[in-house]
Recover the amino acids of this structure.
């Protein structure tokens, strides 16, 4: 089993990641990480794609087709499969993750959870899109230090928030990406040294006019970085967004998970 951290930088389009995530690009240049382009499923909006990333199903199959669909996941997902296999789970994430994988609707009493009887066992959740990314990472680091989870989701929203406010082609949007890149540089070395394989990706991109939902490259092409002992770092490997859940489950050595897995990415 390879302990795994999954970092979802919400709303980060591929080209901006390659231009602004300096630490990740430094790892790629040094042969210590790999970077891939992944096309989002449609619609390229948040809640449907959170469910896609955790179930391996496109929105038209899993039924969470709008941000307005507020309910628990109805399909096997990374959190439920991990819990059933005895793997420990944690998340520092937007409250929609709590609604999908623990219970809906969310209430602020669940801001911090420990030993919760749900797919996400330990967590810190927020509900304001401008909640600072450095707080999200600090919350995640606290969860890691207290619980050493087998699977940790980290989900900051500031890039998406700045994109909606100013547009995906603006200085504000790019600077939010750069700030996230600096947080990765602060935390990833220690997390990798602690034995974690790390994925950095996004759910969807951001158009120049500050929105997303369709198939245009600015809205639907996202980065996918791999870093750690669980990955081959094969520059020619390819994957789809519907294979990411299976990739995580394979890293976690979850038996018979039944999900599609990309070829050429894993050493496990």
């Amino acid at each position: 089993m390879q302990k795994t951290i999954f970092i979802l930088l919400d709303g980060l389009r591929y080209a901006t990641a390659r231009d602004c995530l300096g630490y990740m690009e430094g790892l790629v240049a040094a042969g210590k990480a790999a970077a891939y382009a992944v096309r989002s499923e449609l619609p390229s909006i948040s809640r449907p794609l959170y469910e896609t990333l955790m179930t391996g199903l496109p929105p038209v199959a899993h039924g969470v087709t709008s941000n307005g669909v507020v309910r628990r996941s109805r399909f096997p997902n990374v959190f439920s499969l991990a819990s059933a296999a005895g793997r420990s789970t944690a998340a520092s994430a937007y409250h929609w993750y709590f609604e999908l994988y623990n219970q809906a609707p969310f209430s602020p009493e669940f801001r911090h959870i420990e030993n919760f009887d749900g797919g996400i066992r330990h967590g810190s959740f927020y509900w304001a899109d401008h909640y600072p990314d450095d707080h999200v990472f600090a919350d995640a680091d606290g969860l890691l230090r207290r619980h050493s989870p087998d699977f940790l989701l980290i989900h900051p929203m500031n890039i998406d928030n700045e994109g909606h406010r100013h547009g995906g082609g603006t200085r504000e949007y790019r600077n939010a990406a750069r700030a996230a890149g600096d947080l990765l540089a602060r935390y990833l070395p220690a997390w990798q040294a602690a034995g974690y394989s790390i994925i950095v990706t996004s759910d969807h991109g951001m158009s120049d006019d500050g929105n997303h939902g369709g198939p245009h490259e600015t809205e639907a092409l996202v980065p996918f970085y791999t870093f750690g002992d669980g990955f081959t770092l094969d520059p020619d490997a390819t994957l789809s967004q519907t294979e990411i859940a299976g990739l995580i489950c394979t890293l976690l050595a979850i038996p018979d998970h039944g999900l599609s897995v990309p070829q050429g990415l894993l050493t496990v």
Observations:
- The chain has a mean pLDDT of 98.
